[in-house]
Write a structure and sequence with these properties.
The protein is of the alpha+beta class. It contains twelve helices and 18 strands. Helix 6 runs antiparallel to helix 7 and helix 10 crosses helix 12. The longest helix has 24 residues.
C-alpha cells in the first residue's frame, strides 16, 4: 500500500511532467513485480515449511518387539497409567467426592506412581510372553526370557526396582510355587495347564499378578471359572468388607462351573487352603489372608491396603500339600539378628540381604549372581528360621488347576485394580 500512495503523489506534480515517464517507467518496473513477489513469497513459505517439518516434534516412543525399552523412557513425564478404577459400594460412595480423601491421595501419589510403573512393566512383559509361549518350549528358557525382559523394562536397580519373586510356572496339578531349578529339562506340552505367576516391584511396592496358559480348548471352562471368580473377589473387595464375605462370593462363582476333560465331567472346586493376601512394602504376604471359600476370617479390609486377589480352581480334591523339589525361598520379614556357626551360611545370608532382602528368590537367582555349592548353607538358614522354604503346592496327581490374580489398591476415594490390562 505504501508503494501505491507514492505513485499518485508523483503523477500529480505539474512541474515534474518530463520526469514522469522515467519515474513511471521505474514505477512500472516496480509495479510489474507483484507476481515475482508472490513467487518469492511462495519460495520463502516453502522454506519455512521445510524448516518447520524438520523441527516437528517426534511422537511418543513405541515399544519394540521383543520389548527392550524401559518404561521410564516410554513415559518421559514420569507419570504411569492408572489401573482400572472401580467405585466402592453404596455405604462408601461418599468417599468419591470427599475433598479430605482426595487430599490423602495427593499425598500418596509417589507410592501410587511407583506401583503403577511396576504394573506397566507387568502388562508389557505378559503381552510379549503370551505371543511367544508355545508347546515344546523348555521351561527354563521361558522363565529366563520373561525375567530378563522384566529386568530391562523395569530398569533393574538393586533393591530399588526389579523382580519381586521367582517366576511361578506350575503345571497341571501343581497349583503354585514351582519354577525350574538349574538343569531342569521340563518342556511345556500341548495338554499342559500352566499358571504363570510373576511379580514386579519399584521401591518395594509389589505387583503380584498371574494368569493361566492352556493350548487345548478343552480346558477353557476351567480357566473361565478362576478368571470370573477372581473378578468376583475384586468386585466384592472394599474398605470395611469382611474377608470371609469375599471368600463366600468367590466360591459360589467358582463352583458354578463344570469342565469336561477327556470325556469325564468335573465340577470345578476352589482350593480351600490357598488364599489371596495383603501386600506390604518388600513383603509379599503382609498378614491378612483373602480366602476363596466360605467360612474364613471376620477381619476387615482397611483404607490404603494393597491386596493380591487370586483364585485357584481345581478338578482334584480342592486341597494342596507340599511336594516335589523346592525352588522358592524367602527371608522371614520379622527375623532379627541370629547367631550362625557356619561361615558359609553367614556369607550366603549376606548375599541374600544384599540382593533380595525380604523379597522371595529361587535357586536359579543364586546361580545367576555367582553363588555355588550353597545348598548346605541354605538348609542351615532354613533350619535356623532365618529363611523360609516354599515347596511346590500340589493337588492330587492327574488333576488340573487354573489360577488368575490381580493386585488391587484400596484408595481413599475408590478401588484401583493396579495390574488390570486389555488381556484380563
Amino acid at each position: 500500500m505504501a508503494e501505491e500512495n507514492s505513485h499518485s503523489d508523483i503523477l500529480s506534480e505539474e512541474n515534474g511532467a518530463k520526469e514522469v515517464p522515467s519515474l513511471v517507467e521505474g514505477v512500472a518496473e516496480i509495479s510489474l513485480s507483484p507476481q515475482k513477489e508472490e513467487d518469492d513469497g511462495k519460495e520463502v513459505t516453502k522454506k519455512k515449511k521445510k524448516k518447520s517439518k524438520s523441527k516437528k516434534k517426534k511422537g511418543p516412543i513405541e515399544q519394540t518387539d521383543p520389548p527392550s525399552i524401559p518404561v521410564l523412557d516410554l513415559f518421559p513425564s514420569g507419570d504411569f497409567p492408572e489401573g482400572e478404577i472401580q467405585q466402592y459400594k453404596d455405604d462408601n460412595l461418599w468417599r468419591t467426592t470427599s475433598e479430605e480423601k482426595r487430599e490423602l491421595e495427593r499425598l500418596e501419589k509417589p507410592i501410587y506412581n511407583s506401583v503403577r510403573r511396576a504394573a506397566e512393566v507387568h502388562r508389557q512383559v505378559r503381552k510379549y510372553m503370551k505371543s511367544i509361549i508355545k508347546p515344546g518350549m523348555l521351561m527354563t528358557d521361558m522363565c529366563e526370557t520373561l525375567e530378563n525382559t522384566v529386568r530391562k523394562l523395569i530398569s533393574e536397580d538393586g533393591l530399588q526396582a526389579g523382580i519381586a519373586f521367582p517366576t511361578g510356572c506350575s503345571l497341571n496339578w501343581v497349583a503354585a510355587h514351582w519354577t525350574p531349578n538349574s538343569g531342569d529339562k521340563t518342556v511345556l506340552q500341548y495338554d499342559d495347564v500352566m499358571k504363570l505367576d510373576f511379580g514386579t516391584h519399584v521401591d518395594g511396592h509389589i505387583v503380584d499378578c498371574a494368569f493361566t496358559v492352556a493350548f487345548n480348548p478343552m480346558f477353557d471352562p476351567l480357566l473361565e471359572a478362576s478368571r470370573e471368580a477372581t473378578y468376583t473377589g475384586i468386585k466384592e473387595a472394599g474398605i470395611d468388607v469382611r474377608l470371609c464375605d469375599i471368600g463366600a462370593a468367590i466360591q459360589e462363582v467358582m463352583e458354578s462351573y463344570e469342565v469336561e476333560i477327556n470325556g469325564k465331567m468335573y465340577q470345578v472346586k476352589s482350593i480351600r487352603n490357598l488364599n489371596g493376601h495383603s501386600i506390604g512394602s518388600y513383603q509379599i504376604h503382609a498378614g491378612k489372608s483373602v480366602p476363596i471359600v466360605k467360612g474364613g476370617e471376620q477381619t476387615k479390609m482397611e483404607e490404603g491396603e494393597f491386596y493380591a486377589i487370586e483364585t485357584f480352581g481345581s478338578t482334584g480334591k480342592g486341597y494342596v500339600r507340599e511336594d516335589l523339589e523346592c525352588s522358592h525361598y524367602m527371608k522371614n520379614f520379622d527375623v532379627g539378628h541370629m547367631p550362625l556357626r557356619l561361615p558359609r551360611a553367614k556369607q550366603l545370608l549376606a548375599t541374600i540381604n544384599k540382593n533380595f532382602s525380604t523379597l522371595a528368590f529361587c535357586r536359579r537367582y543364586l546361580d545367576r549372581i555367582g553363588e555355588t555349592k550353597y545348598l548346605m548353607a541354605l538348609k542351615n538358614l532354613c533350619d535356623a528360621g532365618i529363611v523360609q522354604p516354599y515347596p511346590p503346592l500340589c493337588d492330587v496327581k492327574g488333576s488340573y488347576v487354573s489360577q488368575f490374580e490381580h493386585t488391587i489398591l484400596l484408595r481413599p476415594t475408590c478401588k484401583e485394580v493396579i495390574s488390570k490390562g486389555d488381556d484380563y
